[in-house]
Write a structure and sequence with these properties.
14 helices, three-stranded mixed sheet, alpha/beta, six-stranded parallel sheet
């Protein structure tokens, strides 16, 4: 019998499926629930257990992980008669790894406390590749004791694991992460268009740029997307649009001015309005190409 905690996993999308499978590989007993039947079948094929509802998934769990798109989905699975808070046992640890507003995390922690359920907000960075390779960066908000208890589980999912402060802190750091990533992708996209219009060998240019101060994880991860115009979603524009809304709103609340971030947020919104919301966020290149006169 395994001494590892029993895990319920809610949300088996682009990130959630490989992450839950990495827990199975690490020896955890994982019961998952999501709305797509094929994703449940995938988890079962990997050695997990499929549940037909949130209530069924969480009933016997020691740890419950949620990985869903945004605040409304977190609230939908957490609250109500069929939700996590009404069906999880007292003393369970709820780890929300979605990217949501800091206030949603604070409110969830307060509501869960009334039910005897502990909460950590633990959003991640690293995209689909980081999820598959279990090298995610995990930024955590919540009590130190709960973080310490969850650390072995986090170590099966990521490499950089840091408690950033009280409830909501993980989401605040994730919002900053998404600001940096979006601005970085936009800068890379502008450089790609500039280089190509100048007649430079793009592959050679990106190689040398990657080795200097302009190098970044974003450039390394997205270089092939730019070169091949491959925008299969690792992280969709739709989700980055949501995240730029989070950082813009949170910055306004605390009185931080983000002039470059505001411009990039509008460029992301524009790309989405043009029908590219389902593409990878490296598709910001398409927006720059359109602005530069290309038909894409």
């Amino acid at each position: 019998m395994s001494t590892l905690p029993k895990v319920a996993w809610i949300g088996l999308g682009i990130m959630g499926s490989p992450m839950s499978e990495n827990l199975v590989k690490a020896g955890y007993d994982v019961t998952g629930h999501t709305l797509e039947r094929d994703k449940l079948d995938r988890l079962a094929a990997a050695g997990g257990t499929a549940a037909t509802s949130v209530a069924e998934a969480v009933r016997d769990a020691d740890v419950i992980v949620t990985m869903v798109p945004a605040s409304p989905q977190v609230e939908a699975v957490a609250y109500g008669p069929d939700g996590i808070l009404e069906n999880a046992r007292r003393g369970a640890l709820l780890i929300d790894m979605s990217s949501i507003t800091p206030q949603t995390s604070v409110d969830l922690a307060a509501a869960a406390k009334d039910k005897g359920i502990r909460v950590l907000d633990a959003p991640v960075s690293g995209g689909e590749a980081g999820a598959i390779e279990a090298v995610l960066s995990i930024m955590v908000g919540g009590d130190q004791a709960d973080f310490d208890e969850a650390k072995p589980l986090f170590e099966a999912l990521g490499k950089t694991i840091v408690r950033c402060g009280p409830h909501g802190s993980g989401q605040t750091v994730k919002a900053a992460n998404q600001l940096i990533v979006a601005v970085n992708i936009q800068a890379c996209a502008e450089a790609v268009v500039f280089l190509e219009k100048s007649g430079v060998d793009l592959a050679a240019a990106l190689d040398v740029l990657g080795g200097g101060l302009a190098g970044s994880t974003v450039l390394a991860r997205k270089k092939d997307n730019f070169l091949n115009r491959d925008f299969q979603p690792g992280f969709r524009i739709d989700l980055h649009h949501k995240d730029m809304g989070i950082v813009t709103d949170a910055a306004r609340t605390v009185g931080a001015v983000l002039p470059v971030g505001a411009v990039v947020a509008q460029l992301v919104a524009g790309l989405r309005a043009q029908g590219d919301g389902g593409l990878d966020h490296s598709a910001l290149l398409r927006a720059v190409e359109r602005l530069s006169g290309a038909q894409v």
